[in-house]
Amino acid sequence: MAEVRTLHQSLIQCVSKKDYKTASKHLAQLKIALLNHNALIPSTDVPPAVLGVAREILEIGAIVSIHLQDEPAFLRYYAQLQPFYANPILNKVPSKNKNKIVGLYLLLLLTKNNIADFHTTLENMPSAEEDNFVRYPVMLERWLMEGSYDKVWQATKSSQVPSEEYARFSEVLVGTIRHEIASCSEKAYASLPVSNAKQLLFLDSEGAVVDFAGERDWDVRDGRIYFPRDDGEKASLSSSNIINNTIGYAQELETIV
């Protein structure tokens, strides 16, 4: 286990320096070393202390994969951790990172609109909502179901975000919401003022609106966005109408989440 201990310490140092590429290389070496010690899967033949180290290494791997924007790797680490989290002997010394890892998994499920697995995962964690790491995605999911997209956006931009890793998934979630709102707008309206689209799409500037419009092949001219026309007639929505219909529009958007 001397090799594992040395590599483990090197891994921790790399993560503290935010050198995630080097950390990924250490992780590959560590997984081979753990495999050689039969410690990649919990077993009564392996001392609990060794399994505890293996659990921590896999948790670090999950976090590193998020910083490297490697979603498949994160999902693999999450799956590998499940036998460790279910082990009653290991649970005598609870993981300090379990709720963080599970909370990140819940947030990933939200970005995929996988609400069924979201609730299944949550049901297997009694009293988990008391933890800030888990409470954050739960709070976002409730607001999504209500159609309260402004609350979701505000939460992703505030101190409510539990950690840097959560911020990465939160950005993806806001992007998903933005495109859902855009799709609904295309179906509902012929055009919108750029200034109102900025608020509606949670964008920081009118220039960002123009860039986003280009991604979706919208026509921007004379301060308005013109959506692609279909067979049905769409009503042009003025600034005052947008403000007056905010509540009704949120309810309409709720149907597409």
Architecture overview:
This protein is mainly alpha-helical. Strands 1-3-2 form a three-stranded antiparallel sheet. Helix 5 packs antiparallel against helix 6. A hairpin with a 2-residue loop joins strand 2 and strand 3. The protein has 13 helices and three strands, in the order αααααααααβααββαα.
Write a concise keyword list for the protein shown above.
disordered C terminus, elongated, 257 residues, three-stranded antiparallel sheet, mainly alpha
Task: Please give the structural blueprint.
Layout: H1 2-16, H2 20-36, H3 48-67, H4 71-85, H5 98-111, H6 115-123, H7 132-146, H8 149-156, H9 164-188, E1 191-193, H10 194-200, H11 206-215, E2 219-221, E3 224-226, H12 239-244, H13 246-254
Antiparallel strand pairs: 1-3, 2-3
Label the structural class.
Answer: mainly alpha
Largest sheet: 3 strands, antiparallel
General shape: elongated
- State the separation between the terminal residues, measured CA to CA: 49 Å
* Number of alpha- plus pi-helical segments: 13
Number of strands: 3
Output mean pLDDT. Answer: 85
Order of helices and strands: HHHHHHHHHEHHEEHH
Q: What is the CA-based Rg, rounded?
A: 23 Å
Instruction: Detail the poorly predicted runs.
Output: 233-257
* Helix content class: 55-70%
Instruction: Describe the oligomeric state of these chains in a short phrase.
Output: single chain
For the largest sheet, list the strands in their spatial order.
1-3-2
The percent range for strand residues is under 5%
